[in-house]
C-alpha cells in the first residue's frame, strides 16, 4: 500500500561503521569475558541460533499485535520450546546454561513461572517421593503449575495470608478455602488460563489450631477438558502495564479437597491422625523467594538494561542533532558530554550488577550445599544480601532503562524503539519477588542486629560494620579507596540508625514504633550496605579477571565510573556522613567527566560486545546496521491502523464535519 522510500546510501549505517572502526579494544574478547569464557560464547551463540532459525518460533513484531495475539503466540511458542528445545531434565536457574537459554528465548514467552518457581518449589519443598511423583510430570508439561502465594489483600505480609488448608482426618484430605474476597490468589503468572495446577501457599489448620503458611499442590483444571474443577474460580486478571503475553491470574477456592499427600512435606508433615511434625526451620518456607531473588536479577533486569543501553547508544551514535562547532557539521548526540553522562554510567551499572550477581549465586550455591548437610547457619546472611541485591538491581536497572528511553528523544516513546516494552518488562521487577522497600527493611533488620555484636561473632563479609573506620590513602578515585569509601559509609549508616533505634527504645518507645520512625534511615543503610557489596565484588572481578590490557582498562574505567557516578548523584549522603569532603566531591565529579570522554570512542563497541541479535531486541533504533530511519518507516507501515488507505471509523465519524468543511471551502472558492 505504501511506496518504498530508500536512501541510496544510509548515512547512519556509515556512521555506525566508523564508530566500530574507532573502537580501541577487541570486541569479541569482551564478549567472552561477559559470557564467562570463549566456549560459553560459542555455546550461547549455538543455542540462540537454534532458536532463531526455528520456523515455529517466527512471528510478527510484537508492537503490531493485540494482547490476545501476543498471549496466543507466546503460549504456542513456549509449549513448543519447553517440549522440544529445553533439555529434558530442565535447567538450573543460576547456571550458565540457564542464562544461555534465557538469552535465546523469544522476546515474549510464558510458562516461565511454571519453570522458575513451580518446578524449583517441588524440588525444595517436596520429599523424595513427592519429587519423584511430581517433577517428571512438571518437566514434561504434563502438569502446568503456578506459584500462588499473593492474594488480593496480602502480598508482602505473608503472615497475613488468608487462604486456609484445613485438615479433615476422616477423609485424609485438606480442604482449601478462600474465606473472603480479599483471600483469593491474585497475580500469579501462568495461572489465569494456562495452569492446571497451582502451588498454593495457605495457612495450615489442624483441629482448629493454625500452623502458618505451608505449600500445597492443588489441581485447578481438569486434565482432559481444561475446565476449572468444582469449587475453583480461575481467570486472567486483565490488562496490565506490560507482560501482555502472560496470564497473571485470580484463583478463588471454595471447599476444594486435595489428598493429604499434596502438602509438600520435606520440612513439615501432617500424620494421618493429625499430628503435626516439624522437620526443619520455618524460615525454609521462604527459601523459594531467596532462590528467585538470587538467580533471576540477571535475566529479569540486568540483560534488560544491557538491551536498553545497546539501543540507546547505537541510536545516539547515528542520531545527529545540533552543532558542537559553530559552522561545523551536525554532530552525533553521543558526542554531547550530557548524553554520555546519561548513557555510559548505565553501561557501568550493567557490568557492576552482573559480576556482583555472580558472586551472590556462588554464595547461595555454597549455602545450598551446607543446607543439604543440615547446616543453615548462613541463611540470615544470604537472605539479607539477596533481598537488598534484588531490590537494588531492579531499582538501578529500571531507572537506567527509563534514562535510556528518554535519551532517545521522541523516538524513545515509540513502541518501535523497543524501549517502552523493556521499561514495562523491567518495572514490575521492583515489586514481584518481594516489594523493594519491604526487602530493604528485611536487610536492615539483619544489619541492625549485627551492629550490636562483636566482629568475631559476625560473618566475614559483615564484620566491617563494627570495625574501626578505615583511612583512605591517595586519591579518592582509586578502586581501593572507592571500596573503603563505600564500606565506611555503610558502617556509619548502620551504626547511626542502630544508635537511633537503641536510643528510642531505651526511652521506652515500643519497638514497632521505633522501627517505623527509623525506617527512612533503615532503608538508606540497607542501600549503602548493598552498594558496598556490589562495588567490592566488581573491583574483585576486575582485579582477578584474565584478559588483555585494553579490556582490563575498559573494565577498570567502568568500575571506577560506577562508584564515582553513585557518589556524584548521592554526594549529600557522603558529605553528611563525613566520609568525603567537598574537595573529594569536586574531584569525583571531574574524574567522572574525564572517564566519560575516555570511554566515549568505545561505547558502541562495548554494547556490541553484549552480542544481542536484532531479533532479540525488536528495535528500529538499536539494530546492528544503524539504519534507524528506514526501519522506523517500515515498522510504521505495518501498523494495523494502516491496513486500509481510508479507515472506516475515521470516515464514518468525521465525514459529516468534513462535508461541512468542503461546502464552506467550496462556497468561499465560488465567491472568489
Ligand atoms: C527447572 C527450571 C527450568 C527452567 C527452564 C527455563 C529456561 C530459561 C528460560 C527463561 C528464563 C528467563 C528468565 C526470566 C525472565 C524475566 C521474566 C519475568 C518473570 C516474572 C516472574 C515473576 C515471578 C514472581 C513471583 C512472585 O512474586 S512470588 C511472591 C513474592 N512475594 C514475596 O516475596 C513476599 C515478600 N514478603 C516476605 O518475604 C515476608 O513475608 C516478609 C516481608 C519477610 C515478612 O516480614 P515479617 O517481619 O513479618 O517476617 P516473618 O514472617 O515474621 O519472619 C521473620 C524472620 O524470618 C526471616 N526471613 C524472612 N524472609 C526470609 C527469607 N526469605 N529467608 C530467610 N529468612 C527470612 C526474617 O529476617 C526474620 O528473621 P529474624 O531472625 O529477624 O526474626
Ligand atoms: C508482574 C507481576 C507478577 C507477579 N507474579 C506473582 C506470582 O507469580 N506469584 C505470586 O504469588 N505473586 C506474584 N506477584 C505479586 C507480587 O509478589 C506482590 O505484588 C509483591 O510481593 C508486593 O506485594 P503487594 O502487592 O501486596 O504490595 P504491598 O505490600 O501492598 O505494597 C504497597 C506499598 O506498601 C508499602 N509497604 C508494604 N509493607 C510495608 C512495610 N512493612 N513497611 C513499609 N512499607 C510497606 C510498599 O513498600 C508499597 O509501597 C506478581 C506481581 C506482579 C506485578
Automatic annotation (TrEMBL):
Residues 27-144 form the Acyl-coenzyme A oxidase N-terminal domain. One of its GO terms (biological process) is fatty acid beta-oxidation using acyl-CoA oxidase. One of its GO terms (molecular function) is FAD binding. Pathway: Lipid metabolism; peroxisomal fatty acid beta-oxidation. It is found in: Peroxisome. Residues 146-256 form the Acyl-CoA oxidase/dehydrogenase middle domain. The keyword Flavoprotein applies. FAD binds at residues 150, 189. Belongs to the acyl-CoA oxidase family. PANTHER family: ELECTRON TRANSPORT OXIDOREDUCTASE, PEROXISOMAL ACYL-COENZYME A OXIDASE 2. This is Acyl-coenzyme A oxidase. It comes from Phallusia mammillata.
